[in-house]
Design goal:
Number of strands of chain A: 18
Strand content of chain C: 5-15%
CATH superfamily of the domain at 1-43 in chain C: Glu-tRNAGln amidotransferase C subunit, N-terminal domain
Largest sheet of chain C: 2 strands, antiparallel
Low-confidence stretches of chain A: none
Oligomer: heterotrimer
Mean pLDDT of chain C: 93
Radius of gyration of chain C: 23 Å
CATH class of the domain at 1-43 in chain C: Mainly Alpha
Structural class of chain C: alpha+beta
Number of helices of chain A: 15
Low-confidence stretches of chain C: none
Distance between the termini of chain A: 56 Å
Strand order of the largest sheet of chain C: 2-3
Number of helices of chain C: 3
Distance between the termini of chain C: 36 Å
CATH architecture of the domain at 1-43 in chain C: Orthogonal Bundle
Radius of gyration of chain A: 30 Å
Largest sheet of chain A: 10 strands, mixed
Largest interface: B-C, 77 and 53 residues
Order of helices and strands of chain C: HHEHEE
Shape of chain A: elongated
Helix content of chain C: 25-40%
Chain lengths: ~475, ~500, ~100
């Protein structure tokens, strides 16, 4: 299935995503990685490249790489090499970044996701381990920049895709899925505002059938909203340039959220000559089959697998399954509730509906939900067994959420929300309403269904909302038919 | 107290005098500090700090009294200024690091301090260990306002060798009983040879490189220099050992007592003599001294075995591709941002980098950075750097082949004795070519020694090089020690010292 | 393989070294002399040979040692910055970085 062309042009997008790994210490030093510390209080001698310092590899960073490789079906290299990428920049203390070049730790793999109804697959070229650089601060200093090296040495996995994406929507969907995966398997905290997950988008356009166009790289996109905006702008800009007869020059660009535009960075001559060579301070990284097996054994079920299982075992639609597996916490919440009440579809509806709505409003995650899975399950149980109606359930839910009460049955009791299930009393009400509404009855018998609903409404009103709608329906039809 | 002057005692004897409290650590330290001061003209020391030294000495005296002293308690030593030290500035012989204070000590420095050694000061060296004559130092020795020649005690108008020139001078002139040096392409062996002292470079990876200001990462090694193999063994034992927490290239080979086999018999020892080390380029006086030493070995029961190291000549371009390449990258951290020199006047960031590095680095360093950047640059990597690393493996394999028929390899350290100050001028090539005998062992990462073997032209010392297979330091020291028991070249002193 | 003045300019820029015109000229000559020696190396047949990264790898496998993920480095900003050319409020100051 091909994506929409834009003014007759096909869009080609590839991503490079830098994920900060959720380790305690840095990749090559024992300084802490926690965000937000005072400048240069988490930059030790190794991070500052003080004379005589040397790198020592963090085992956990390697474990993260293995986990990613397993999650994406990649080949995990039994031997991989660290290489120096040489360039000068104030936030790069050694004057080189320790990265991986010819032989990365993770090779190949793919990310699957849905774009609307369509299943998409984006192939990975590779993922490699490297160290993050520090930060430059420009405000407060006239004509100068202040360099904070706290971030220097934070472990990164750089995840590189083939140029498989064909629209900005697809690119964002890919990024969201990757974000979900890396947070799900616990290798990244996913905090985009803190820079834990940063995407570079390589964008080019071409007429269908033509070779790949020259690409420009939009750097450091750290919000999904800006990602889409930036790519859309860049596509339009490139097409305009080409239509105006200008060739696209390869460039690195930055997105300005205030103007909504991408702008080429100052070109660095010789920027491409990084003089890569294997880092003589770091022997080759060996990853044994045993280690990979151990990681595989410890790995939790992946989101796609779990979603498939929800479809198979709980009979949920794919949409529900995908939505519920947006995070480990949500999936766990769902399963707990579904198992407890044996009503998976109802549980799904409530979680995707009421629960999610309130979580979004409160801007918190499901881990902080005031209603536990057990409580939700209890509530659903009372709907399923006819004790309360859906409307009444909403009131109970509200009481639980606001902390008014923690017991489903207690709320039902105290608010008198029990549905009327006594068919005798109900029949009496129905008879009364039929008798009081001869016109509606006649209209219904004449074929007007609306009249039926009007009668139902009257009955519900007369029962103060406590009548069981299903029962009302059945009994009313029976009486009108007879 | 012994009647021999303190500075004539070897490390072993001095350690005994100290341990048995016939001399105090403070006295020993003061003695050598005074000698260093009296012979400032040699340019050996670049930093002293009597307060720090005497405080360390007092601590050692206390430890000796308490019975908690280490094997080298109170022994004064000095460190090549490539090792970072707290307290003493660390310059690597460069303007780039003038006055630099390291917040930590090199592992080797810590290990020697833990063994009880007392630091007399820092020793002069070629800038960033790049040089073969110590003529590339850009720091002022103690007693001078500007960089000054480092002089061979055997002849004041001659170079001491490099890059551990200051180290060799200090030992030869008895300004310290033992010192540390570093050897990347021969920088311990060659100055030891030129100054008539003993020095050893261990197997690559045996001594930690943490705190050694990096020149060429896959070649740099720390080692001791002293007046005898026995003394070197004592220091080497303290210096070597795994450093898994700080140096990823440090090997998991346990620390060893290198003195244990010193007196083993060498009867039947097979000494390989590489044909390529005895060609036309070898000066006759050096050949004579080396041949003399080899005859001594035969008298001791060793067997001389002809071997071949066919790629000896290639070691020069291979080394001078690999070392500068690694150096060009290692020296990128000197950018005026976090430490070290920064230019005063510049227009913008790039200008700041360029001027800072132009001012901070000397000519030889700049040359090697340029070579290094070139051979790593796009389009040249395969033909130069990668090719050199492949030939390096072939050279290492040549040694493994040779060791099938011998236990040790022996030959000259350098083609000539020490040359005159300024003689090689600004042309680096002559220096590079003179490294031909030490480079192969460096490339292979093998342990190597220089042992005094006699004297040559102008009465200048000649060293015998001994190379062993990986981890064979004890065997090297044993062979060296047996030679020193049969000869007295290592006991001769330069006149006036 | 003869270097040109353009090569010298390009490499000096890569290495962030400012060379005076006479220094550049001297450098060109010296480097070309040096590369004359290097030429003999290029002709050597090294097919099938793996590069030797860690010297001891000539006789045994040398693998990267891995350490436990423990953040044990304390904050030593003052000591670490004692030799810094320009520091303000804990930040290293440099001429403005323009992107």
């Amino acid at each position: 299935m091909t994506a929409k062309l834009i003014h007759g042009y096909e869009v080609v997008i590839g991503f490079e995503t830098h994920t900060q790994l959720a380790t305690q210490s840095k990749i090559f030093s024992r300084a802490p990685t926690a965000f937000g510390a005072e400048p240069n209080t988490q930059a030790c001698a190794v991070d500052l490249a003080l004379p005589g310092t040397l790198p020592v590899m963090n085992r956990e960073a390697v474990a993260c790489a293995i986990k990613l490789g397993l999650a994406l079906g990649s080949h995990i290299a039994p031997v991989s090499i660290f290489a120096r990428k040489n360039y000068f920049y104030p936030d790069l203390p050694k004057g080189y970044q320790i990265s991986q070049f010819e032989i990365p730790v993770v090779q190949g793999g793919e990310v699957e996701f849905f774009l609307g109804d369509e299943k998409k697959t984006v192939r990975l070229v590779r993922a490699h381990l490297e160290e993050d650089a520090g930060k430059s601060l420009h405000e407060d200093f006239i004509g100068q920049s202040g360099i904070d090296l706290n971030r220097a040495g934070t472990p990164l996995l750089e995840i590189v895709t083939e140029p498989d994406m064909r629209s900005s929507e697809e690119a964002v969907a890919y990024a969201k899925e990757l974000h979900k995966i890396v947070t799900w398997i616990g290798i990244c905290d996913g905090n985009m505002q803190e820079g834990s997950f940063r995407c570079d988008a390589n964008v080019s356009v071409r007429k269908p059938g033509q070779p790949l166009g020259t690409r420009r790289e939009i750097k450091n996109l750290n919000s999904f909203k800006f990602m889409q905006q930036a790519i859309d702008y860049e596509i339009r800009w490139q097409i305009e340039q080409i239509e105006d007869g200008h060739a696209i020059q390869q460039a690195t660009v930055l997105f300005d959220p205030d103007t909504g535009e991408t702008r080429a960075m100052r070109t660095k001559e010789d920027a491409a000559d990084y003089r890569y060579f294997p880092d003589p301070d770091l022997p080759p990284l060996h990853i044994s089959e045993q280690w990979v097996q151990d990681e595989r054994a410890q790995m939790a079920e992946l989101p796609r697998t779990m979603a498939a299982r929800f479809v198979a075992d709980y009979g949920l639609p794919e949409y529900d399954a995908t939505t519920l597996t947006q995070s480990k916490a949500m999936a766990a919440y769902f399963e707990a509730a579904a198992k407890a009440c044996s009503q998976p579809k109802l549980a799904s509806n409530w979680i995707m509906g009421e629960v999610s709505r309130r979580l979004n409003m409160a801007e918190t995650g499901i881990e902080q939900a005031p209603v536990t899975a057990a409580q939700l399950a209890a509530l659903i149980g009372r709907i399923a067994d006819g004790t309360i109606s859906n409307n009444a359930a909403k009131q109970v839910f509200d009481a639980l959420w606001t902390g008014e009460s923690t017991e489903v049955d207690a709320v039902i009791e105290s608010k008198g929300l029990k549905q009327m299930n006594d068919s005798g009393a109900l029949e009496k009400i129905i008879d009364e309403v039929i008798a009081a509404n001869p016109d509606n009855v006649a209209q219904f018998r004449a074929g007007k269904d609306k009249a039926f609903n009007a009668l139902v409404g009257q009955i519900m009103k007369a029962s103060k909302g406590k009548a069981n709608p299903t029962q009302v329906n059945e009994l009313l039809r029976a009486k009108l038919a007879g | 107290m012994t009647s021999t002057a303190l500075h004539d005692l070897g490390v072993a004897q001095l350690a005994t005098e100290l341990r048995e409290r016939r001399v105090s650590a403070v006295e020993a330290a003061q003695h050598f500090l005074a000698r260093a001061q009296a012979h400032q003209n040699l340019g050996a020391y670049v930093a002293v700090n009597p307060d720090i030294t005497l405080a360390q000495a007092r601590a050692q005296d206390a430890a000796i009294a308490a019975g908690t002293a280490g094997p080298l308690a109170g022994v004064p030593i000095a460190h090549k200024d490539i090792f970072v030290t707290k307290g003493f500035p660390s310059t690597a012989g460069s303007k780039m690091l003038a006055g630099y204070q390291s917040p930590f000590d090199a592992t080797v420095v810590t290990k020697l301090a833990d063994a009880g050694a007392v630091t007399l000061g820092k020793l002069n060296c070629d800038e960033f260990a790049m040089g073969s004559a110590n003529e590339n130092s850009a720091v002022a020795p103690v007693g001078f306002d500007a960089p000054a020649p480092v002089r061979n005690p055997w002849a004041a108008d001659r170079i001491p060798g490099g890059s551990s020139g200051g180290s060799a001078v200090a030992v030869a002139a008895r300004l310290a009983p033992a010192v540390t040096g570093t050897d990347t392409g021969g920088s311990i062996r060659q100055p030891a040879s030129f100054c008539g002292i003993t020095g050893i470079k261990p197997t690559y990876g045996r001594a930690s490189r943490y705190g050694m200001i990096a020149f060429a990462s896959s070649l740099d090694q720390a080692g001791p220099m002293a007046r005898s193999a026995e003394d070197c063994a004592l220091l080497l034992s303290a210096m070597c050992g795994p450093d898994p927490d700080r140096d990823s290239t440090s090997l998991d080979v346990p620390a060893e007592n290198f003195s244990a086999k010193l007196n083993d018999s060498i009867d039947g020892l097979r000494i390989g003599i590489p044909a390529e080390f005895f060609g036309e380029g070898l000066a006759p006086d050096v050949r004579a001294a080396v041949d003399g030493a080899l005859k001594e070995y035969e008298k001791l029961g060793a067997k001389l075995v002809p071997i071949s190291l066919p790629r000896t000549q290639l070691s020069i371009p291979v080394y001078y591709i690999i070392a500068p390449a690694e150096a060009s990258s290692n020296l990128s951290r000197f950018d005026g941002v976090k430490f070290g020199h920064r230019a005063k006047d510049y227009t913008d960031l790039v200008d700041m980098y360029k001027k800072t590095r132009a001012e901070g680095f000397g000519d030889e360093v700049k040359r090697r950075i340029m070579i290094g950047a070139y051979v790593l640059s796009h389009g040249y990597y395969d033909a130069y750097y990668l090719q050199a690393q492949k030939i390096r493996r072939m050279i290492a394999d040549d040694f493994q082949n040779a060791f099938k028929s011998c236990d040790l390899i022996a030959g000259p350290v350098a083609p000539t004795v020490a040359w005159k100050l300024g003689e090689h001028g600004a042309a680096p090539l002559a220096d590079y070519l003179a490294d031909i005998f030490t480079l192969p062992g460096s490339l292979a990462g093998l342990p190597g020694m220089s042992v005094p073997a006699g004297f040559g032209e102008g009465g200048m010392p000649v060293g015998l090089q001994l190379l062993g297979n990986y981890f064979q330091e004890a065997r090297l020291l044993n062979a060296a020690h047996r030679l020193q028991q049969a000869t007295d070249f290592h006991l001769r002193r330069p006149e006036g010292f | 393989m003869a270097l040109t003045p353009q090569d010298i300019g390009r490499i000096a820029n890569l290495a962030r070294l400012e060379l005076t015109p006479s220094e550049s000229e001297r450098m060109l000559t010296q480097l070309n002399d040096f590369f004359d020696i290097v030429e003999q190396m290029r002709a050597v047949d090294t097919s099938g040979v793996t590069p030797l990264a860690h010297p001891v790898a000539a006789i045994q496998d040398v693998a990267l040692r891995l350490r436990e993920d423990v953040a044990s480095e304390p904050n030593q900003r003052e000591a670490n910055q004692q030799s810094a050319p320009a520091v303000e409020r804990g930040l290293f100051l440099v001429p403005k970085v323009i992107e």
